[in-house]
Backbone:
């Protein structure tokens, strides 16, 4: 049973380009969460998605950032027109159930390290 | 919203000593408190968690205590080993898994 898979592991973009980060949840998990970790800091919640639905995007910047979790395929975190401040590690996590669940264990992927030149 | 504070930011101990990391939270509705260990360049790994209906939980050398009245919880590592060296994060959550993380504690265990 593979864990949460993220790709790419490392992504280098120049300012103004687009970054696409992918996350495949663990088998049987239908809830995906994205977190951002700046250097020497903790993880900050960005967005919580179920298949085809965004449940909570309260941690997402209002501009340039978007996320989706289509019926088929991985969840995608998209950052348009990247700036140097977007450089960070982006972690995806998944769980089998979400709101109202008593099983709240979150399992994280290995992350994507985004570097903006 | 929830705010989680974590102390200390760094902790150095000798191998075999105990290490204690403390966290406080602000939202009395929070009911789930996991601890994650993160080694350099790697993913956060869940090492232990506790729910609000339990005051203490132990797993081998690791234990977590929760004081709901005071809104604080602590991680205790006994008989520390060099491989325990990492950054440890506490977190708190209400309802679904929108974890709010502390700022981390860098633990260094010297042989």
Residues:
């Amino acid at each position: 049973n593979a864990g949460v898979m993220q790709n790419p592991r490392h992504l280098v973009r120049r300012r103004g380009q687009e970054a696409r980060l992918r996350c495949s949840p663990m088998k049987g998990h239908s809830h995906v969460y994205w977190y951002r970790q700046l250097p020497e800091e903790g993880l900050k919640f960005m967005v919580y998605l179920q298949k085809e639905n965004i449940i909570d995007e309260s941690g997402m910047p209002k501009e340039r950032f978007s996320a989706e979790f289509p019926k088929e395929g991985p969840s995608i975190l998209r950052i348009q027109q990247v700036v140097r401040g977007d450089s960070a590690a982006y972690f995806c996590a998944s769980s089998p159930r979400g709101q109202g669940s008593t099983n709240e264990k979150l399992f994280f992927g290995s992350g994507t390290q985004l570097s903006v030149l | 919203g929830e705010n989680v504070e974590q102390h200390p930011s760094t902790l150095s101990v000798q191998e075999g000593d105990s290490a204690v990391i403390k966290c406080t939270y602000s939202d009395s509705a929070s009911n789930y408190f996991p601890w994650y260990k993160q080694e350099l360049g790697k993913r956060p790994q869940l090492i232990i968690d506790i729910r609000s209906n339990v005051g203490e939980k132990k797993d081998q050398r690791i234990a977590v205590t929760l004081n709901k009245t005071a809104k604080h919880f602590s991680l205790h590592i006994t008989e520390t080993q060099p491989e325990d060296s990492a950054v440890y994060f506490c977190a708190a959550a209400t309802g679904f898994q929108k974890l709010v993380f502390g700022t981390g504690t860098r633990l260094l265990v010297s042989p």
